[in-house]
Amino acid sequence: PWRTLVTIPDAMVSSRCAVLPHPAGVAPRRRQHLPAQAFWGTERRRRRRLVSFEAPPRCHKMYVPGFGEGSPEKKAAISLLNFFNYLAVRIVLAQLESYNREAYVELKEFTSRNSVNDADSFCKNLIRESPRHKALAMRILEVRSAYMKNDFEWDNLKKLSFKMVDEANIKLMRDYVLETSHIEDDE
């Protein structure tokens, strides 16, 4: 919390005591006399507090407005969930194509009728379609969990994200500089 810093004028400090002023709007009752030794070094401490006293940050990260339903990380996690669901459907389809052609056709037909973009609704609808589809949905849930935990290269994702953002920023800045610094020939 913010605190009011009181500076004591030299006229109010003697060698033996200091008189503290009352806050504005408060009627003084009695003057307080404190030993001057209590204020030795106060000016130095006050300056240090003033220099280093800023609004206390709640976090060292940027504030992102407009994410009432969750953090940007949560939105990214939802996107990744949908992506992992899409990958799991593709993996299961590839597996079924080689050994269970009938289930492959059923799942392919279901994906043509239902969007894979919303993972939860896709799996919910697949589970409720039929007992055979329920088994396919359970397989998709297992595959997406296993892929996310074991096979997805999270470190590579981080490196690629950093690299792609940096490269895109540099390209955009370079294009802007070339566009704005274009000098027409007088010929």
Automatic annotation (TrEMBL):
InterPro entries assigned? Chaperonin_RbcX_sf, Chaperonin_RcbX
Keyword Disulfide bond applies: no
Pfam families, alphabetized: RbcX
Gene3D superfamilies according to UniProt: Chaperonin-like RbcX
Q: Does the keyword Chaperone apply?
A: yes
Query: Looking at the record's lineage, which domain of life comes first?
Result: Eukaryota
Question: Biological process GO annotation list?
Answer: carbon fixation; photosynthesis; response to cold; response to salt stress; response to water deprivation; ribulose bisphosphate carboxylase complex assembly
Molecular-function GO terms, alphabetical: protein folding chaperone
Which keywords describe this protein according to UniProt? Carbon dioxide fixation, Chaperone, Photosynthesis
Q: Name one GO cellular component term.
A: chloroplast thylakoid
Q: State what protein this is by name.
A: Chaperonin-like RbcX protein
Recorded source organism is Aegilops tauschii subsp. strangulata
Q: Tell me the lineage of the source organism.
A: Eukaryota, Viridiplantae, Streptophyta, Embryophyta, Tracheophyta
